[in-house]
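step 4 of 6: structure.
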Amino acid sequence: MLDVNVQGKTFGKQQILGPCQLTLQAGQRVCLLGPSGIGKSTLLRIIAGLDKSYDGQVNRPDTIAFMFQGPNLLEWRNCYQNLMIFHPKSTQADAHNALELVGLGDKGQHFPRQLSLGQQRRLALARTFLSHADLVLLDEPFTSLDPALKADMLELTRNLLDQSGATLVHVTHDETEAEILNAEAIRMHGKPATLQSP
Amino acid sequence: MADPQVLPSPMVVVHKMAELWASGDLQKHLIDTAIRVAWAFSLAMILGGVLGYLMGRNLQLNAWLDPWLIVFLNLPALVLIVLCYLWIGLNEIAAILAVTLNKLPMVMTLIREGAKSASRELRDLAYVFKLSTFARIRHIILPELLPHIVAAARAGLSVIWKIVLVVEFLGRGTGIGRQIHTQFSIFNVTGVLAYALSFVAFILLIEFLIMQPLERYAARWRHNA
């Protein structure tokens, strides 16, 4: 499913990542834990194929979904379009079902600016899970949310993961998120950073 | 009261405008000017848009073209117009090129800034979700650039209206600029004002019928909050 074998990653003369190996089977969930700035997001970008300037090799599945810290929606397109543009094979009925799953069933024609922050996050979550990607990558999407909204989003994410059976790599510095998502916690430590199983 | 030959009354100017309209001269020259404006505007927006976007996305290209951009931004319009006429000849191509080159740097600058401030996260999402090039341009790049495109269009159009008259004044046989030149050479203030005010009315028509509705359409999603 996912086979990560990164030997190193540098920014300029500074080495950020040391050897990092990670192999995941279909449906497996892991959380990459570590303090801010250690290189968690860098490793996630390498896994997603967004960063290609590293030493090593990554074998990833064809279908990947990615969610950033911010909702990163197309503010000039309505909710249906925000889903269907990123999933061209989906019909409006599929998009509507995805919106129903995240509690936005009546918001299809709304523009993102008409939604609250929590609703925007739900829309981003619907976009992440609509196409049933084999691998879901989450880059601290619950950071900076208030506790109630965070708990709500985590529960929703766990339910969507249970339904889709997707493999998960979740970057966070909050260990409780790993427990709620039923994910194995893997710590990043050192300088340059490496992965260490608990 | 002012000398009517220096400052004619509004009624005299309106009468002159009606007279020019009835003879068909006004429409003919307005259309010739509008065609030149349309060509120069389209060329500058397309070329300036593409070059500005590429400069905003590519540091090396930006470093290479930036000095030239500064030169052209500060080069007097008159110099470009005269050089185009001298090098290419007193023809339509030189006239349209002169106007285009005067507007091009402004478009490039505005679009470049738009490209620089575009969201990296949206580009990354487009990559991860494997959006086609067409979908990226249509749903991400163009909408992100749209406020900058509209600003470039508005600022550029106002520049073009002014420069195209100078270009016609100096080297074309038709157009509002040429007619103002003719009226100037016979010291006919009424004629100058009649052509100039007709031109202003035409600009206002374009503003209210095309530019403002276009701006409202482009920003419709902003007003839905």
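step 5 of 6: annotate
 - Chain A has a mean pLDDT of 91.
 - Residues 74 and 82 of chain A are 6 Å apart (CA to CA).
step 6 of 6: archive
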